[in-house]
Write a structure and sequence with these properties.
The protein has 124 residues and is of the alpha+beta class. It is built from two helices and two strands; from the N terminus they run αββα. It has one domain (2-122).
Length: 124
């Protein structure tokens, strides 16, 4: 029942709260045979109060909303996993790039040292 109250508070047009109907009737045109003026008047009032016990369309709307929330939660979890995967991939790509840079610097130093030794040995 709490779900129905939430649905109607959200602006749905289904009647989930009690609703009141009223009508007033006034007639002064009843004729009594043999008399020229109406003999009596009729005044009537009615008031009715209704509270729906169960509305299938409201229940279906509630169930669809629950499914939509579940779908959104699944999409959120997938997005979180994708984010974790992308961050992890970027971290390892950075680590690989740092290692490659270090290897290139070491190779450059080794070639430079070899060149210096080669040139020094040639001119001796």
């Amino acid at each position: 029942m709490r779900a129905f109250l939430r649905l109607s508070r959200c602006g749905h047009t289904c009647h989930t709260y009690p609703f009141l109907k009223k009508s007033i009737t006034y007639r002064n045109n009843v004729r009594i045979p043999g008399q020229s003026v109406p003999g009596y008047s009729i005044i009537g009032m009615s008031l009715s109060l209704a509270q729906p016990v169960f509305k299938w369309d409201a229940w279906e709307t509630y169930q669809q909303a629950k499914l939509a929330v579940t779908g959104a939660e699944i999409m959120l979890r997938k997005a979180e996993q994708d984010l974790r995967l992308n961050v992890t991939q970027a971290y390892f790509d950075t680590m690989t790039a740092q290692r490659d840079l270090l290897l290139a610097q070491m190779h450059e130093k080794a070639v430079s040292d070899w060149l210096i030794r080669t040139c020094a040995n040639r001119f001796m």
